[in-house]
Amino acid sequence: KSADGIAFLQKRGGRTPRGSALPIANSLAEQVRGLPGVERVEIAGSVRRGTETIGDIDLLCVATDGKKVVERFAAFDGVKRVLASGTTKGSVTVGLTRGRELQVDLRVVPAESFGAALQYFTGSKEHNVRLREMAVKRKWRLNEYGLYVDRQDAGPTGDDRQDGGPTEDDRRGTGPTGKLIAGRREEDIYKKLDLPWIPPELREDREEFQPDADFSNLVSVSDIRGDLHVHSTASDGRNTIKEMALAAKKLGYEYLAICDHSASATIANGLSIARMWEHVAAIREVDEETKGIKVFVGTECDILPDGSLDYPDDLLAECEVVVASIHLAMSKGGRGKASPTERTLAAIENPHVTMIGHPTGRLLGTRPAMDIDMAAIIEAAARTGTMLEVNARWQRLDLKDTHIRQALEAGVTLSTNTDAHGIAGLDDMHYGVTTARRGRATTMDIANCFPLGKLQKYMAQKRAPDQLSASSS
Would you tell me which of 39, 58, 301, 358 could form a disulfide with 44, CB atoms 3.0–4.6 Å apart? Predict the structure, then answer.
C-alpha cells in the first residue's frame, strides 16, 4: 500500500495546466449530471477560480443516494485508480500525458448546505480564512455545512470534534453548532457577512475585500467583439484567411486581425517582405468580399535580438494591427543583442506597434518567463498607448493575472486574443477572459471589447496622436 502511494505521488507530481484539467472537469461533471438521482453538480476548487495550473479537480453534487452515485463515479471510463469510495465522497485518478495522473474528488452534500460547500471547496484557503474571521467577529461559525449562529450553551463544536465535521443535527441547524442562517445558496453566505457576491476568479485574498470593491463590470466572454491575433495558412496556421474570417463571423465577432508570422520566424513559415506585401493584398481582398465582419490587415512581427523589428516601417504602416513579439525559440536575425526588456521597450516606442504579444514569453510547465522588467514595460505601454496582450492560449496565459492587475493600475489597455492557428483555436478565448478577470479587468480595459469604430480610433491614436488631438479639438 505504501509503495503504491509513493508511485502515485510520483505520477501525480506537479500541477496541471488549466487547459488540460478543465476539459476533464467538464466531462466528469457532465457524466455525474447524467447519473440517476443527481439533482445538481458544480465544479469547485482551483478549476472554478480559473488558476493557470490545477492541483486536483473538485466536484460537488446533490443526490438522493450518495453511495450509489459515488460507486458509479468510481467506475467511470478513464478512471485509473480508486483512492476512496464512501457514502458522501469518492476520490479517483484519471490519466494525463506522460504517465501522470490527476486526482478528482466528488463530494455529495445536502441541498441545504450546497452553497456553503461550494464556497468552501472553491477556496482559496486565504479567502476562506478571511470569511471565517468575519464570521467569528459576529460570534458566528462558518464551515462547509453552512453559516451558524452559535448557541450560548454550546457544547463541543464541529471544529472541536475528532472528525472535524458537524453531526446530522448540526447540518439541520438543531445541534450544538447553532442555528443555520445561510448555506443553501453561496450568495447568502456573502450577504450575511455584508459582502457582495465575490466572483470565484477573485477569491485569492488580494483586493476583493476592499470596501469599495466593484465586481459589476468584469469582462466576460460575451463582451468580446473580436480577436486581434490569429494566424492563417500563409504562415503556420491550418485555415485560410477566408475560413478564419467566416469562423469568427459565426462566433458573432465584429472584427478579426490576421497576424501571421514575420520573416525571421523561419520554423513557423514566416513571411518574407515580398510575401507579406502579397499577404496584405490577400487580406484586403477577403475583407472586401466578407460582409458582416471587418478583417484587419495584421502581422505578428518579431522583435529581433537587437531590438529592431522584422519588417520596415513602410510595410508596418500598411498593417492595421501590428503585434510585436519575442520568439526565443524560433527567431533568427538582428545585428546585435539586447535584453528582453530593451527589445520590448524599443518595440513599444515604434509608432506602428499596436500591442506586445505574449509579453513574458512563458509556456506553462515548459518554459519560464523571460527575465524582464515588467514595471518598465508597463510604464512605457501606458505612456505610448501600446496595448499589452493577454494571450489566451492555455499553454501561455500571458500576461498572467498579477501582471494584468499591475498594468491596469498604470492605465494600460489590454487585448485578449487567442493566437489561434486554426478555427478550433478561436474557442480558447475563455481561457484569456478568465485570466483577465483574475486581474480584475473590465470591459473598459480590454480593447477587443470595444465597438469597431472605437477600436479603430484607439489604434489610430498611437500612430498620429497630434493629428487626432487636433481634429478632436
Answer: 58
Rounded CA separation 200/227 (Å): 25
Measured CA to CA, the distance from residue 431 to residue 231 in angstroms comes to 18
**Closest among 347, 169, 156 to 262, alpha carbons compared:** 347
The two beta strands, 101-108 and 140-143, are unpaired
Burial (CB count within 10 angstroms: exposed 0-12, middle 13-18, buried 19+), residue 473: exposed
Q: Which three cell numbers stand for residue 124?
A: 482559496
Judge whether 452 and 225 are in contact, CB under 8 Å.
yes
Distances in Å between the alpha carbon of 302 and those of 123, 410, 462?
A: 40, 26, 19
User: Is residue 9 over pLDDT 50?
Assistant: no
- What the block records as the C-alpha cell of 253 is 465577432
25-51 per-position pLDDT tens digit: 999 999 999 999 999 999 999 999 999
Helical (H) or strand (E) element with 41? strand 38-44
- Give the pLDDT of residue 333: 44
Identify the three-state secondary structure at position 270.
coil
On whether the CB atoms of residues 387 and 355 are closer than 8 A, the answer is yes
361: left (phi over 0), alpha (psi -120 to 50) or beta: left
The one-letter amino acid code at 298 reads G
Which pLDDT tens digit goes with each residue over 239-254? 999 999 999 999 999 9
Grid cell 503504491 is found at: 4
Task: With cut-offs at 50, 70 and 90, classify the pLDDT of residue 411.
Answer: very high
Per-residue cell: 358: 505574449
Q: What is the DSSP letter of 150?
A: P
- Three cell numbers at 418? 487567442
Are the beta carbons of 135 and 182 closer than 8 angstroms? no
